[in-house]
Amino acid sequence: MSFDVLQDKIRAMKNPTVFGLDPRLEQIPPHILAQAFESHGETLSGAAQALLEFNKGLIDALCDIVPAVKPQAAYYERLGWRGMEVLERTITYAKGKGMFTIADIKRGDIGTTAQAYSDGWLGGVQVGKQICKTFDADCVTLNGYMGSDSINPFLDTCRAEDKCVFVLVKTSNPSSGDLQDLVAGDRVVYTVMGDLTQRLGKGTEGKYGFTCAGAVVGATYPSDLRQLRRRLEQTFFLVPGYGAQGGTAEDVQYAFNKYGHGAIINASRSIMCAWQKTGGDGTDYRQAARDAAIAMREEIKQFVTVV
Amino acid sequence: MSFDVLQDKIRAMKNPTVFGLDPRLEQIPPHILAQAFESHGETLSGAAQALLEFNKGLIDALCDIVPAVKPQAAYYERLGWRGMEVLERTITYAKGKGMFTIADIKRGDIGTTAQAYSDGWLGGVQVGKQICKTFDADCVTLNGYMGSDSINPFLDTCRAEDKCVFVLVKTSNPSSGDLQDLVAGDRVVYTVMGDLTQRLGKGTEGKYGFTCAGAVVGATYPSDLRQLRRRLEQTFFLVPGYGAQGGTAEDVQYAFNKYGHGAIINASRSIMCAWQKTGGDGTDYRQAARDAAIAMREEIKQFVTVV
Lengths: 307, 307
Hints:
The structure is a homodimer.
Chain A: H1 2-13, E1 17-21, H2 30-40, H3 44-62, E2 68-71, H4 74-77, H5 80-96, E3 100-107, H6 111-121, E4 125-127, E5 130-132, E6 139-142, H7 152-161, E7 164-170, H8 177-180, E8 183-184, E9 187-188, H9 189-201, E10 213-217, H10 222-231, E11 237-239, H11 249-252, E12 263-267, H12 269-272, H13 285-301
Parallel strand pairs in A: 1-2, 1-12, 2-3, 3-6, 6-7, 7-10, 10-11, 11-12
Antiparallel strand pairs in A: 4-5, 8-9
């Protein structure tokens, strides 16, 4: 099952991190923007072109040291269908460079609607006699507020296509507790969601023992992270909140099991925008991103050994 | 504020319903598919073209009797960026025909990411010196599992652009209770979400007394619907689950206040696929949809009088 593929890549690179591709225009180096606007005008097409160039450069710079990439759909949808085309092309490009691709879409809908999302993002869509692939990521993020109806259709696709998902369990943002921390009997809402996720994934365990239904658990609540790691032994974790949001390498160590398996730590801004801290004009953005990714890998290595 | 616009349209047409545009290819009449495939081949472009033609026909047939349309993003994303282009064009077309447009996206993310979604779906995006509009719907649906951080950025856009949102509170699907019905102290999770929604919208009440933060409350749990209507007096309801999912006109009456205000009832398949029940070849799909929409309006009229 597909978390095997991710865990294998992590072990090969000794690097349990993923870099988030969430670019806003003001985070793209000026020379890339200028060139795109020169070709396409100051238009949505120009903006989309700049995004794609920036992404390709980052993927080139990181693909041999970082195992996975996580584009955040919002920053592509923001540019309308032109942005979505860039997202499709970014996923294809990253896969071509051997990276594991996690589409951060946080979709949550039911029945045939969930199936439609699953077709688009993981599976494929039947058109006449052929199956067409569209976004075709290796993995997506999901929101389970609507219950198992909103997760099962994706897991069907995962079983058929050897793919996987991460369901939001305990998120890293300040207001995550509004709902997730509510006490319900002897559990809290996020443990209910975590238990549901692990239960729905049952029977899909791969060679490392993880099901195809992973969980998003933020770095910013390390005691919750530690408790969830113990509770959900068969659940792979995607851990946001490292770096800019305040999570540290010491905090994220609790996401891993005793083999250093079962989790991947995300960083977006600290890698993507590293060039803004070098004092340069942005032409060095690839090297700056690479340096930041290596620094992150080394920080985590102080607390986590991937066997 | 923007629910005023919707309530005005509902009053003018004496019809508190919205039709969902959730088309799968097998629900599109054969003559439309054949023509699109003839022009574009059996490709994603062909499928997208068929979707757009079908949607335009339905909008033409319904725009003078149904006040609002709700395209479900999943069925467009399923076709990749070509589908998203159709979704943009469908929204533009429906607005051109005077319809209120609700993009059923159920997005839920935080901070700048929520802002990016909000820019794309409701506001606009700054490219160079200009603001570009992309999806530009009147209203979107949201998932608040991540808490107020995932709702507030949209409300900022609503205030600036006179738009509105519906937050998932109690959904119509069988497994909605997995999370939403958990008992937390003297409330259940869905009432916590409902209370949060109404509280975040405070200060945006329009002439009918509703804030710009509405709620999704399903028709399939009528006692919950009734209780939420009493609890959330300032909250406009979007009510799915009518028809195919089992909700009846008698059930949905509880969504309205004493003036027959404050709710809109969705039907998708029963209108969109009405042609499949006429025994015809689908060339009559417009008339079949119109007949179904009128029948629904009349059913609801037996229980609800819009003042």
